[in-house]
Design goal:
mainly alpha; 2 domains; two-stranded antiparallel sheet; 55% helix; elongated
């Protein structure tokens, strides 16, 4: 995902960057309390999601003038857009969580509600159960051939693949 900044003006981006630089380094517990520093990957993902969310809000026609101006109607419009785009339930959960954390930073804790308040249960049902066989054999991949090619790249890599094949 890239920053779809075009709808955001420079002052808006600067204000958003300031909020992120002051707050984006912490991981939070279920109560919204900071518990430790978070990874660079989490920081980058939050930044991308939050910038994209505000860009989407602006592109939906809302004249939001600052990050602190976010309201329930904006969050509802975002969730509707995500549903229309067919964003995966797991991704919607993650994005709402990131938006919830952001709203806590700007003093609007509780603005982002539970995901069940935005979607029907059937729209956000997640499953960790595979619905198809994802094994190499099922995909007609010749394991020996892949391991031979891997050995040309790196013997250790080939060894890892051999062990995975051996132990399932």
């Amino acid at each position: 995902m890239n920053y779809r900044n075009k709808p955001l003006g420079p002052y808006f981006r600067i204000a958003l960057e300031k909020i992120l630089s002051e707050n984006n380094h912490k991981a939070y517990d279920r109560n919204g309390e900071p518990v430790r520093d978070c990874s660079k990957r989490t920081r980058q993902a939050r930044k991308e999601v939050i910038f994209a969310a505000f860009s989407d809000i602006r592109s939906l026609g809302y004249g939001i003038v600052s990050p602190q101006s976010i309201k329930k109607k904006h969050v509802e419009a975002l969730t509707t857009l995500w549903g229309e785009k067919g964003i995966a339930p797991r991704t919607r959960h993650t994005w709402l969580s990131m938006l919830r954390v952001f709203c806590g930073w700007i003093g609007k804790k509780g603005l982002v509600e539970d995901i069940e308040n935005y979607y029907e249960p059937s729209e956000i049902r997640r499953s960790g159960i595979a619905t198809s066989n994802l094994s190499w054999e099922a995909k007609h991949i010749d394991v020996a051939e892949v391991i031979a090619k891997a050995k040309l790249l790196d013997e250790r890599f080939a060894l890892y693949l051999s062990l995975q094949d051996c132990f399932g």
